[in-house]
Amino acid sequence: MKVLVTGASGLMGRALMREFERTTSCDVLGLAFSRAKGALRKVDITDEGEVRKVMQEFQPDAVVHAAVQRRPDVVEKDEEKAKKVNCSATETVAKISAEMGTYLIYISTDYVFDGTKPPYKPSDATNPLNKYGQQKLEGEKISQAHNPDCAVLRVPILYGQIETVEESAVTVLYNTLMNREKTDLVDDCCTRCPTHVDDIAVVCRQMCERWKTDPQKLNGVFHWCGSEFMTKYTMITTLANAFNLPHDHLKPNPIQPTGGTLRPKDCSMDRSKLEALGIGQTTPFKEGIHKVMEPFVTSQ
Ligand SMILES: NC(=O)c1ccc[n+]([C@@H]2O[C@H](COP(=O)([O-])OP(=O)(O)OC[C@H]3O[C@@H](n4cnc5c(N)ncnc54)[C@H](OP(=O)(O)O)[C@@H]3O)[C@@H](O)[C@H]2O)c1
Questions:
Q1: Which ligand 1 atom is at minimum distance from the Cα of 7?
Q2: Separation of 255 CA from ligand 1 center, angstroms?
Q3: Which residue minimizes the CA distance to atom 12 of ligand 1?
Q4: What pLDDT, in 10s, does the model give residues 152-186?
Q5: Does the beta carbon of 54 sit less than 6 angstroms from any atom of ligand 1?
Q6: Which ligand 1 atom is at minimum distance from the Cα of 169?
Q7: For the chain, which domains are there?
Q8: Cα torsion through 162, 135, 3, 48, rounded to 10
Q9: Does residue 259 have a pLDDT over 90?
């Protein structure tokens, strides 16, 4: 099976590459842009000609579309620029994949929900609170409209093998933990299900494999997420306890943060649709975060 991964240099893309590369029955090609190196192909995903050329050359059976501008604050600041990646490029990938009879997995987010009525099923009504969520929802609709052989896979806050701690909204908490000179209030109000990118990569690989024998069952909207409901405060204390680091300078803040880009309170998702297909993998948070952070903690 030939699989094309867009956004292959990103947090999730690198996990997808590792997973498909170690699957012997797969031939995988990764696309990247500013961080294209090694075997990754440099392609500006917003350039339809470049995307068409690489897809026609590679002839993928499946595309996992993970290229994105995913920082809500950046999207708010320059909506039009972000839209080129999040919406226009998605239309290009969806159109070309449909022309080629290629299965499309469009990676989306729990931010398509407003966070007031969890847990969310794939069929539940969406209502994004910020522009990033709106663009990702538009990306979902575009993908499905242009390619009928499409899965939308919504995922929540991610962590995994990182290049810098700032790369993930989970691992960046390490900076707060280590800044012991400052007493800090840490959000203990908004619920998140931190999810290991290696689990998402396994889910995508399983979806592609299952699609070969059961294509209809793998079309539509799907959810995958970790199984632990946490706040930033419980994530940071779990991280501290995993390495026996003191955290008495941090206090839980029970009040929902205000100011800045609006974020939903609780977008916990119901993942039973994929579980019913025998698809899924869950890394316990304490185990996952310990492995991911070990190189950073031991180098301090
Ligand atoms: N991270 C999270 O917590 C989170 C939460 C929910 C959903 N998601 C979803 O998960 C998916 C993957 O996100 P991620 O966290 O892996 O993102 P990421 O680490 O920010 O990576 C973004 C990727 O998109 C590529 N990209 C951006 N602009 C491009 C362009 N013009 N041409 C080609 N490639 C371009 C980047 O390539 P270069 O770096 O090489 O330029 C990079 O590979 C997205 O659909 C996102 O919405 C992520």
A1: 43
A2: 30
A3: 66
A4: 999 999 999 999 999 999 999 999 999 998 888 99
A5: no
A6: 3
A7: 2-163+195-227+267-283 (3.40.50.720)
A8: -120
A9: no
